[in-house]
Amino acid sequence: MNNPMLADKVVVVSGVGPGLGRSICTESAAAGAKVVLAARTESRLKEVAAEIEAAGGETLCVPTDITDDDAVQALVAHTLDTFGRVDVLVNNAFSVPSMKSLARTDFQQISDSLDLTVLGNLRMTQAFTEALAETKGAVVMINSAVLRHSEPRYGSYKVAKSALLAMSQTLATELGPKGIRVNTVAPGYIWNDQLKWYFGEIAKKYGITTEQVYEQTAAKSDLKRLPEPDEIARAVVFLASPWANAITGQTLDVNCGEYHV
Ligand SMILES: NC(=O)c1ccc[n+]([C@@H]2O[C@H](COP(=O)([O-])OP(=O)(O)OC[C@H]3O[C@@H](n4cnc5c(N)ncnc54)[C@H](OP(=O)(O)O)[C@@H]3O)[C@@H](O)[C@H]2O)c1
């Protein structure tokens, strides 16, 4: 174990994909937590779980669609049957937004995005509230730096993530008396395989190198670099841990200083 910040804690991560979801799981395990992995694709959950178990960690994989009431209730039951408690819920689930102007985005797309990002995360939080109240636990919502800008084509994503932030702040107020903390991590760029591929495509289009695309992008941040997935995940671990016991209703931006709030 690298550090004991989440020793003996049970952390449920919803929306475990190859990017940030994976890093949140591995960093939580490295901090001593038992990790419950939930998303729809069982094979991916098992890959991440195998990585954690190879390093000596404990996991439970529960294939779950967070837009489905029965699936979420089954996740709660399976978690409590296996580990007997829940200390942390991290709501990370993500699907690629429309990337069209709001004028050209059809309502069904916006509705699907709200269904996942707002109602899916609310359904998860409601379902785990009783268990989290028992442990005076924590919820961490994964948001985005889209909160900090209004660039064209990000409208649908911004609508959903802004509603998620509003919901997170209200949940902090409503669940605070039960001892449950609700905080947000808002990453900007994440230097992961997806972004490496995308910068490669931009480089080809403009006849420059991927490194030049990276440098031009990173130039807008104070630290002149882009955060790695594990660096975002460690901010999540911090907010989930007892080190953040007096912090609730807050948003931690992790973007190497691209935006100041
Ligand atoms: N990637 C970035 O650059 C970036 C930047 C800023 C913020 N963020 C935020 O960071 C978070 C993670 O993004 P990521 O790109 O790194 O994603 P990721 O963790 O690699 O994957 C997220 C996973 O969510 C799962 N998911 C989607 N719909 C679901 C549903 N209905 N029920 C359960 N799980 C579902 C998908 O797995 P299944 O298909 O298997 O269900 C997907 O693989 C998101 O909240 C995103 O908004 C990302």
Automatic annotation (TrEMBL):
Any one GO molecular function term: oxidoreductase activity
Higher taxonomy: Bacteria, Bacillati, Actinomycetota, Actinomycetes, Mycobacteriales
Stored InterPro entries: NAD(P)-bd_dom_sf, SDR_fam
PANTHER family: EG:BACR7A4.14 PROTEIN-RELATED (PTHR43975:SF2), ZGC:101858 (PTHR43975)
Keywords: Oxidoreductase
Keyword Oxidoreductase: yes
Species assigned in the record: Nocardia uniformis
Protein name: SDR family oxidoreductase
SUPFAM superfamilies in UniProt: NAD(P)-binding Rossmann-fold domains (SSF51735)
Coiled-coil blocks: none
